[in-house]
Amino acid sequence: MSTPLIEIQGMTKVYGMDEATVHALAGVDITVDKGEFIAIMGHSGSGKSTLMNILGCLDRPTSGTYIFDGRDVSRLNRNELAEVRNQKLGFIFQSFNLLPRLSALANVMLPMLYNMEEDISDEETEKRAIASLQAVGLGDRLHHHPNQLSGGQQQRVAIARALVNNPPLILADEPTGNLDSRSSVEIMEILHHLHRNGATIVMVTHEPDIAEHAGRVVCVKDGMILSDGRSGNNPCLNKRSL
Amino acid sequence: MKFRKIFRTAWEGLMLNKVRSFLTILGVIIGVASVIVMLSVSAGTEAAIAEQINALGANLIIVSPMRGIPGAGRTMMIADAYAIEEQVIGIDGISAEQGPAPQPVKGNGVTLDAIAVIGTTADFPNVRDYAVASGAYFTADEDERKAKVVVLGAGIAKDLFGDVSPLGQTIMVGSVKLTVIGVMETKGMVSDIDYDGRVYLPINVVFQKFMSEMPIGGDRVRTIYVKASSQESIPSIITQITALLSERHDVSPSQPDFTVQTQQDIIATQEATTAAFRDLLAWVAGVSLFVGGIGIMNIMLVSVTERTREIGLRQALGARASDVLLQFLLEAIILSLVGGLVGVGVGVGGSYLFGMFGGMQTAIVPGSIPLAFGAAAVVGIFFGYYPATQAAKLDPIEALRRE
Could you say which of A59, A93, A111 has the minimum Cβ distance to residue B318? Predict the structure, then answer.
């Protein structure tokens, strides 16, 4: 067996002080293997966003360990976390988060600007960004600005940006939340395609039919994992159907 | 490498908002340009004053009665001038001067009212670097025997005789009939004196014909100009003159009834006045540069707020706090440096235009260009740093959530 990509044990996250404390995460254990496609579900306030922020190295847990790609990242400082985000994570956001004044190509080039590992030449930066956009089927939209693209196309640009540094983990936060159903299908197909080619994907969603796409659904409630496994009798999915 | 990439990011960020960037740097442009223009105007004024004072004659020492002492105006006599000429070592000549109230001048059927009449000794053209254009100046001998001769300023000659040569003609100065023996070269206005609009007479003729009826009468002189043979001999000459005149006037050298000044003294006095003026201008210009800096800070703060989401995104993609800091600091520095550069251009151009059309003499002070440009750079760093730290401090989660 290969070592898991993510190994989280006894993770808590507490906000506030004294009596006003909020336990956003109250002891979470989770392991994600390389090549998995998992969905994290839960209501707002369940702690899934906090979990996502910590998985994405945007935040640090109050206690517990987070081994990511063989390294404990739970105690890294801001700069080290920035480097992990740059090298090992690809973010896909609900609202795309493209810079509106930059072309699709320039948006996809952004992560390479902050790459400390290798000093990528301008030509190479552009070459990789073009390849990444071609991979999501936007080879003919390189110089379009976000407002000239449909929602689905904008999210594809964001996916291209997430892939461009070739990260071991892709984090998708409600990737279809701002999209119509046709574009949603399109985006999910791309994620499936990436998964088939070996990518590890963690996706937050509250839409059961989107969560169905993942091979594994983790249901979070009150800062704890309520269930973890195949969709079948998942409380998060079932609750919807009630 | 990385700095270059972030520099390019900062540059592109500014170019995406050209109008705002231009308006932001306008304050710096005006500040830098005004520093350069102000300094060039005051340097030009100083140069003009120095030029005028030097036009009095090279290596000139000016001896005059002390103002404000009762009776001092009565003590300096033509004999003092002769004593200086004979006894002081290191001089090239002296010219004593005295003049009555302005007189009417008549000649060739033309009458000119209120013309300045100046009595001088024979060495006047040499001492005052003021040559005779045609004819000759009177000699010491002519002065001594009170020859009825006159030398005309260039303007007077033209006014009376037009293009005809006035040499040998007779004119009336007041009630005195004089023969024209020379015309001075054109000199123009120097320190508010129109040299071309005066007539020059032997000083002894002035004493006899114009000053004898005055209450104090006689052969008093208002100024003795002493020409030093070299720059180096000036201090020694001042000491000698002070000692000589103190003895002749029977006063203590520490409390003389006369003053001995050099052109340098006069220039220094004038410069003290213009320096105060220049400092004031420099302050005004400096304040406008400061205000320009505040303008940059204001826009940078607005920009950080507007681009909070962008900052959050960049952080999520791996930008470190220092990368964000650098980007926004560079934006501010680029703004102020471009503003400084344009300001230097506007300032230099403006100085030339002022000199050509503003009726002012201007001289661009070479040091003012790096000074103003450097000040602009400092303003950029100083006023850009705070907004940049605000950007770098942002928490990526908060920033991404912001609308």
Answer: A111
Q: How far is CA A137 from CA A132, A153, A157, B272, in A?
A: 9, 9, 9, 76
- Please check whether residue B84 is in contact with residue B258, taking contact to mean a CB–CB distance below 8 angstroms: no
Mention the CATH class of domain A6-241: alpha beta
Query: Is the separation of the CB atoms in B102 and B114 below 8 Å?
Result: yes
CA–CA dist B34, B373 (Å, integer): 12
CA B320 to mean position of chain CA atoms: 55
What are the CB-based long-range contacts (under 8 Å, 24+) for B187-190? B187/B55, B187/B130, B187/B153, B187/B154, B190/B52, B190/B55, B190/B56
- What's at B164, amino acid-wise? V
Give the closest-approach CA distance of B311 to chain A in angstroms.
10
Q: Which residue of B has its CA nearest to A108?
A: B317
B312-367 confidence digits (pLDDT tens): 999 999 999 999 999 999 999 999 999 999 999 999 999 998 888 877 788 888 88
- What is the mean pLDDT for each group of 10 consecutive residues in chain A (242 residues)? 85 85 90 93 88 93 93 92 94 93 94 84 92 93 94 95 93 92 92 92 89 88 86 64 39
Q: How many CA atoms lie within 13 A of B370 on its CB side?
A: 2
State phi, psi for A15 to the nearest 5 degrees: -105, 150
Burial of B359: CB neighbours in 10 Å, binned 0-12, 13-18, 19+: exposed
**For B16, which of A91, A101, A115 is closest by C-beta distance?**
A101
pLDDT at A121: 87
Q: Do A113 and B397 touch (CB under 8 A)?
A: no
Q: What is the pTM of this model?
A: 0.74
Q: What is the pLDDT of residue A242?
A: 36
**CA pair distance B334, A61, nearest whole angstrom:** 40
> Would you state the pLDDT for residue A241?
42
* ipTM of the predicted assembly exceeds 0.90: yes
Q: pLDDT value at position B217?
A: 56
Closest chain A residue to B323 measured between Cα atoms? Answer: A114
8 Å CB contact between A231 and A212: yes
Residue of A44, A77, A89, A97 for testing the chain B interface, max B β-carbons within 10 Å: A97
Query: Distances in Å between the alpha carbon of A8 and those of A12, A76, A157, A229, B74?
Result: 10, 15, 31, 16, 108
B320 contacts in chain A (CB < 8 Å): 78-79, 82-83, 114
**Domain coordinates of chain A in residue numbers?**
6-241
CA dist., res. A153 & res. A174, Å (int): 16
Indicate yes or no: CB of B400 within 8 angstroms of CB of A93: yes
Spatial strand order of the sheet with A89-92 comes to A89-92, A169-173, A200-204, A37-41, A216-221, A224-229
Closest listed residue to residue B120, CA positions, set B229, B199, B213: B199
Q: Chain A partners of B318 at a C-beta cutoff of 8 Å? A: 82-83, 85-87, 111, 114-116, 165
Using a pLDDT cut of 70, give the percent of chain B over it: 95
> How many angstroms away from the CA of A197 is the closest CA of chain B?
23
Q: What is the dihedral angle through the alpha carbons of B291, B46, B350, B19, rounded to the nearest 10 degrees?
A: -10
Cross-chain CB nearest to B320 (options A58, A79, A99): A79
Q: How many residues does chain B have?
A: 403
Contacts of B248 (CB under 8 A, 6+ apart): B79, B80, B83
